[in-house]
Amino acid sequence: MKYRMPLLVGAALLAGAASLPAQAVSSASSAPHTVSVTKGQGKKACSWGVVCLYKNHKLNKGANAAILLTNHSLSRLGKFGFNDRATSVCNHTTRPVRLYEHDGYKGSSETVRPSECKNVRTSFNDRASSVRLGTGPESAR
User: Fold this and answer.
1) 53 - beta bridge partners?
2) For a pLDDT cut of 70, what percent of the chain falls above it?
3) Distance between CA atoms of 54 and 50, rounded to whole angstroms?
4) pLDDT for 106-141, tens place per residue?
5) pTM greater than 0.85 (yes/no)
6) Up-side HSE of residue 39: CA atoms within 13 Å toward CB?
7) According to the UniProt entry, where is the signal peptide (predicted)?
8) Is pLDDT of 85 > 90?
């Protein structure tokens, strides 16, 4: 009898933990905010879960050039030496991303859909000063 009570309590605790909502478990495993600038080219230089801004067109085709990688919004790309330098972009996230002409998510913008890699439009070339993840027409409610 002495040993049955702790076993029953332990089983009840395990059953309760198994019924936790998925949100509670997944929020604890959120990735930390990261930003880095590296050199490379092509889609493979941009890992899943990040947005990559490339210095040259076609994802730095033909040259290992600067790439800014981030997994969160940045209100000032100049802080990372990438103000007015983005010519192409790869969005390897599940959320839309919007590039803005000015710091603080202001001015004209360009939206990049989830899983999309592209050159920015000619009129926006080398004009991005901030980037916001999770915005754009696709996320409007």
Assistant:
1) 68, 89
2) 73
3) 13
4) 999 999 999 999 999 999 999 999 999 996 444 332
5) no
6) 4
7) 1-24
8) yes
**What's the Cα-to-Cα distance from 134 to each of 2, 35, 56, 96, 131, rounded to whole Å?**
55, 17, 24, 5, 10
- The b/e string for 100-112 (b: 16+ C-beta within 10 A; e otherwise) is bbbbebeeebbbb
CA distances from 124 to 15, 67, 107 (A): 55, 17, 11
Q: Which fold has domain 31-139?
A: Gamma-B Crystallin; domain 1 (2.60.20)
| Predicted confidence (pLDDT) per residue in 53-62, tens digit | 999 999 999 9
* Count of CB atoms situated within 10 Å of the CB of 44: 9
DSSP state of 32: P
Higher pLDDT, 66 or 1: 66
- Nearest 5°: the CA angle 36, 42, 46 is 35
